[in-house]
Design a protein that fits this description.
The chain is mainly α. The chain has three helices and no strands. It has one domain.
Length: 65
């Protein structure tokens, strides 16, 4: 029974070491959602962003029901 536990632990440790080695090796890509958030943030900062009152009110009303 002890040898099975030991074998299982070493397999787990080997797998976790492989996972650690793979971290951070892929290229970083920017998602479309992040781009949209940046554009929205810039428009808010510049004062160009306008809230659609009717659409906001409709969404709030739907969530209350």
């Amino acid at each position: 029974m002890i040898s099975k536990v030991g074998a299982g632990n070493s397999a787990y440790l080997q797998n976790s070491q492989e996972t650690k080695n793979k971290k951070g090796t892929g290229p970083i890509t920017k998602s479309k959602e992040l781009d949209k958030i940046e554009v929205l943030g810039e428009s808010i900062k510049s004062g160009d962003y306008k809230i659609d009152i009717n659409k906001t009110a409709q969404s709030v009303a739907e969530n209350l029901v």
